[in-house]
């Protein structure tokens, strides 16, 4: 008998209660129906104070504590993010607690390779536990589903990534974009705080040379203070010196700042014609989805399954192999053709409805 069959039938039409890990993340918030009511997601407990809801404050996720899962009142447990530092033994205990309570466990596989871990062994061990224990496995692209089937013999339901940017901001971006037709073509490379899957010096020389050779084009490189400031926690002296030298020579615009607020991030992405992702490994990208919401073309590496998320440009970069010509050709194509592959409001609205419907049906089916 399956776990779903062991669950009791609901005795009322009350909405199901979902323990989403986390619930405050924008991806999870946008799984909810746009109109009407759906399942109720528990707020993220305050780290260190499990009795206090904390809205979007979700790290580290209290819900991953087996003691929390043993006592909390919910119908379905749905894991998305936040288990980066959890020992596989803790995750195994968590899933056994859920099984012992008859609580369905849903796992959405966002990352088949953790972009924050240089060594993949911990994430692989975590996935081994989670994929094997899940009553339902979801992922975002057919390619990821194929890999899940190949590695674990599990069939994953493909549910696309919903919009990231709110609809009001998307509408403003659509209105403003035509006004920028006569401005210089702006290419953006955002290095954030140099996640483990970023190797900017692999692509920067080619990117700088290519943009410098285009008419009316600008390369803007953004990064956080912690890597460029000499007293930064992740200071990279070689990268800092190279970027500042290129900026002084007028070959790029260098923007050094702290973490963007959402509004600042949307304004930055909307100001670009092309956003280049400097990843050497990974799986899916919320950044890519935000760019599509804001009508900004994305140039992504061939690692992972970025090209299956939506229409983008690609260049060869999979960790072992980097093809400078493919990067150069893609940037030139973006400059020449000015592709407009963003998602429309109607497309995102319909996708949101479908994503919400699939989740609601899954939760209901597991809870019968």
Spatial order of the strands forming the largest sheet? 2-1-5-6-7-8
CATH class of the largest domain, please? Alpha Beta
N-C termini distance: 13 Å
Largest sheet: 6 strands, parallel
Mean pLDDT: 93
What portion of residues belong to β-strands?
Answer: 15-25%
CATH architecture tag of the largest domain: 3-Layer(aba) Sandwich
Overall body shape: globular
Q: What structural class do the secondary elements suggest? A: alpha/beta
What's the structural domain tally? 2
Which sequence of SSEs, written as H and E, runs from N to C? HEHEEEHEHEHEHEHEHEHHEHEHEEHH
β-strand number: 14
CATH fold topology of the largest domain: Rossmann fold
Fourth-level CATH superfamily of the largest domain: Response regulator
Q: Summarize the amount of helix as a percent range.
A: 25-40%
- Helix count equals 14
Query: Whole-number radius of gyration?
Result: 22 Å
List low-confidence stretches: 1-12, 50-56
What does this structure look like?
The protein has 368 residues and is an alpha/beta fold. The protein has two domains: 3-162 and 350-366, 3-Layer(aba) Sandwich (Rossmann fold); 167-342, 3-Layer(aba) Sandwich (Rossmann fold). Helices cover 39% and strands 16% of the residues. The chain is built from 14 helices and 14 strands. The chain has helices at 3-6, 26-29, 66-71, 88-101, 121-133, 142-152, 167-176, 200-212, 225-228, 237-248, 262-270, 286-293, 324-337, 345-366; strands at residues 17-21, 40-41, 45-46, 49-53, 76-79, 105-109, 136-139, 157-158, 185-190, 217-224, 253-257, 274-276, 297-301, 313-315. The chain has a six-stranded parallel beta sheet, with helices on both faces. It has a six-stranded parallel beta sheet with strand order 11-10-9-12-13-14, with helices on both faces. Helix 8 (200-212) links the parallel strand 9 (185-190) and strand 10. The longest helix is centred in the C-terminal third of the chain and has 22 residues, at 345-366. The two termini are 13 Å apart. The relative contact order is 0.13. Mean pLDDT is 93; it is low at 1-12 and 50-56.
């Amino acid at each position: 008998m399956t776990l779903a069959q062991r669950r009791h039938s609901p005795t009322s039409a009350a909405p199901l209660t979902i323990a989403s890990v986390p619930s405050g993340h924008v991806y999870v918030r946008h799984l909810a129906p746009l109109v009407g009511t759906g399942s109720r997601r528990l707020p993220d407990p305050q780290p260190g104070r499990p009795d206090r809801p904390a809205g979007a404050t979700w790290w580290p996720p209290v819900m991953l504590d087996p003691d929390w899962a043993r006592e909390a009142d919910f119908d379905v447990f749905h894991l998305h993010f936040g288990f980066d530092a959890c020992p596989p033994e803790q995750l195994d205990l968590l899933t056994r607690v859920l099984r012992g309570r008859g609580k369905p466990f849903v796992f959405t596989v966002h990352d088949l390779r953790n972009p924050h871990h240089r060594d993949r062994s911990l994430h692989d061990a975590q996935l081994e536990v989670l994929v094997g224990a899940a009553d339902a496995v979801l992922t975002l692209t057919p390619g990821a589903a194929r890999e899940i089937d190949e590695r674990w013999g599990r069939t994953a339901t493909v549910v696309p990534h919903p919009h990231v940017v709110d609809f009001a901001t998307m509408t403003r971006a659509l209105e403003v974009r035509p006004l920028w037709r006569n401005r210089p073509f702006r290419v953006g490379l955002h290095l954030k705080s140099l996640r483990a899957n970023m190797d900017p010096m692999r692509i920067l020389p080619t990117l700088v040379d290519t943009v410098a050779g285009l008419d009316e084009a600008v390369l803007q490189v953004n990064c956080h203070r912690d890597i460029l400031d000499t007293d930064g926690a992740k200071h990279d002296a070689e990268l800092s010196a190279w970027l500042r030298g290129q900026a002084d020579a007028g070959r790029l615009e260098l923007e050094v700042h702290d973490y963007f607020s959402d509004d600042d991030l949307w304004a930055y992405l909307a100001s670009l014609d092309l956003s280049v992702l400097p990843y050497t490994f990974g799986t899916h990208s919320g950044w890519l989805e935000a760019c599509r919401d804001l009508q900004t073309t994305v140039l992504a590496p061939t690692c992972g399954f970025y090209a299956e998320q939506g229409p983008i440009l690609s260049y060869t970069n999979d960790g072992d192999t980097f093809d400078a010509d493919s990067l150069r050709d893609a940037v030139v194509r973006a400059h020449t053709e000015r592709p407009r592959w963003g998602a429309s409001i109607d497309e995102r609205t319909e996708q949101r409805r479908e994503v919400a419907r699939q989740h609601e049906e899954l939760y209901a089916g597991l809870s019968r």
